[in-house]
Write a sequence for this structure.
């Protein structure tokens, strides 16, 4: 095996792209700060039990595992940061009232989430803890939309759902209890044959099969909520979820949004209420996923309402137009005090100054050298190339 060969679904990020990803990270974290979000940085590795719920099969399969040489206990390399941030809110900060936390860091997947997915993500996100009202959901959605707008994404589309609709239909049939996670994944993929086969295998009632089959057809504009009211079983939990979803749509009149009642959010299973995704042309999958996940802090001894979102900066950057090189100044290396003073002055003004041996070319991906420092009449002068 060649010593430069990387494992499958892992890749290097080269200079211009790496710079743009870093600029996106800085810009978005600064944006979140203007909303009052405080930055936290959980560790890459924790004991396995704290990184997932006991019954979270999808997250378990995506988590790389290793043995702690100090304690002998099993540790995991994080595959998602939401649980870590929830632990910080519930266990370390332990505040009363609303807490806003943001974060950014790499996460590793033991296996890719899709055919075109990477196993290393640079996950950035924002979470609001301590408020169960729709105001927190609205703020999370608006901030997520502003995040992709600031990155240069045009005509982003917001997809909304309430996980309570699909959950109520599954919970209404006792035969489906142990297969709930699989059903949610099949619903999100709109895999009707897969749903029918699984439900038949589980001995689901005919009305359950029909209701879940119908759910995969309920997507489109806001009118989908009214259609769902008419064609889904009149379960109290279904009606309550649809009413909550309708209220949220009314509070977001300025966004291009769609309803997809089969989209159950990501496959990790901790979402409990409204879920949302942001799509845009140029990306094969959702750019942003988020929603409400009340009670996630129960694992850490404190139940708190919570909502938020996350996205992968590497994925976001990959669909943007090619990164533009930055303007730079060429200057020679040397021990001349006047040269050093001129270079320092330019850098203090924010200019990029690249020093190289005289007459030697330097291939660059990230910089466009369009000026140079030249010695004329005993003084160093900045000239256009």
């Amino acid at each position: 095996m060649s010593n430069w060969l990387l494992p499958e679904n892992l890749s290097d990020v080269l200079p211009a792209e790496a710079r743009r990803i870093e600029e996106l990270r800085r810009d978005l974290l600064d944006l979140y700060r203007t909303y009052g979000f405080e930055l936290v940085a959980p560790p890459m590795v924790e004991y396995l039990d704290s990184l997932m719920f006991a019954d979270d099969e999808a997250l378990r399969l995506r988590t790389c595992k290793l043995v702690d040489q100090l304690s002998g206990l099993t540790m995991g390399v994080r595959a998602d940061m939401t649980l870590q941030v929830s632990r910080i809110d519930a266990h370390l900060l332990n505040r009363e009232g609303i807490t806003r936390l943001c974060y950014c860091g790499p996460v590793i997947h033991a296996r890719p989430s899709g055919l075109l997915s990477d196993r290393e993500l640079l996950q950035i996100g924002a979470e609001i803890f301590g408020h169960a009202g729709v105001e927190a959901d609205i703020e999370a959605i608006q901030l997520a939309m502003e995040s992709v707008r600031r990155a240069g994404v045009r005509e982003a589309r917001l997809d909304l759902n309430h996980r309570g609709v699909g959950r109520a239909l599954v919970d209404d049939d006792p035969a489906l209890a142990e297969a709930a996670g699989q059903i949610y994944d099949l619903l999100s993929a709109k895999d009707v044959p897969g749903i029918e086969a699984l439900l038949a295998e589980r001995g689901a009632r005919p009305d359950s099969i029909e209701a879940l089959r119908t759910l995969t057809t309920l997507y489109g504009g806001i009118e989908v909520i009214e259609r769902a009211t008419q064609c889904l079983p009149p379960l109290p939990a279904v009606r309550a979820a649809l009413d909550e979803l309708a209220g949220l749509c009314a509070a977001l009149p300025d966004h291009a949004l769609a309803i997809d009642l089969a989209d159950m959010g990501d496959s990790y299973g901790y979402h409990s209420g409204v879920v949302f995704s942001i799509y845009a042309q140029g990306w094969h999958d959702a750019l942003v996923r988020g929603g409400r996940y009340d009670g996630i802090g129960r694992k850490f001894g404190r139940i708190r309402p919570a909502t938020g979102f996350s996205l992968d900066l590497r994925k976001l950057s990959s669909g943007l137009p090619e990164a533009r090189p930055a303007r730079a100044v060429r200057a020679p290396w040397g021990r001349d005090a006047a040269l050093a003073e001129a270079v320092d002055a330019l850098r203090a003004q924010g200019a990029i100054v690249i020093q190289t041996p005289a007459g030697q070319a330097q291939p660059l991906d990230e910089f466009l050298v369009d000026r140079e420092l030249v010695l004329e009449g005993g003084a160093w002068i900045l000239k256009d190339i």
